[in-house]
Design a protein that fits this description.
The protein is of the alpha/beta class. 44% of the residues lie in helices and 15% in strands. It contains six helices and five strands, in the order E-H-E-H-H-E-E-E-H-H-H.
Length: 142
């Protein structure tokens, strides 16, 4: 799994080795030259043959592409104090959601779990404050 923000030397060789590619909003267009994020993600999926490619869209949630399907997972509305560390917490939430779901985890459920985790983190100041517990995430997910 990788979370990439900027196109740098060697990034294409790295992405050839990655199964789960998570990107910043502008990365797919910057890498592929395709302005539409969905089309750019499809091109990345085809080029790198990753199991999942997705772009974080801030408050708009996540747009992902996997096995022929485009999935939009919307963000959660929370009172935002600080966004510092939300991306790191998203990645941790993604991995936790994947592990909690087991071998048959649905991608949409994993992404919703990660979105909820990152949203709850933003309620506190600082990179570590506000990292939610599993129970808090479950409560937000309803």
């Amino acid at each position: 799994m990788v979370d990439v923000e900027k196109v740098r030397a060697g990034i294409e060789a790295l992405l050839q080795e990655i199964d789960l590619i998570i990107t910043a909003q502008d990365f797919p267009a910057e890498l592929t030259g395709i302005a539409d994020v969905g089309a750019a993600l499809r091109a990345m999926k085809e080029t790198f043959r990753a199991t999942l490619v997705c772009a974080k869209l801030g408050e708009e949630g996540i747009l992902s592409f996997t096995t022929g399907n485009e999935i939009r997972t919307y963000g959660f509305s929370v009172s935002v104090v600080d966004t510092t560390g939300a991306g790191d917490v998203f990645r941790g939430g993604f991995i936790s959601g994947w592990l909690l779901g087991g071998p048959r985890a649905e991608v949409e459920d994993v992404l919703r779990y990660a979105n909820a985790t990152a949203a709850l983190k933003r309620r506190s100041l600082g990179a570590r404050a506000g990292i939610p517990t599993r129970e808090e995430v479950a409560q937000l997910l309803g």
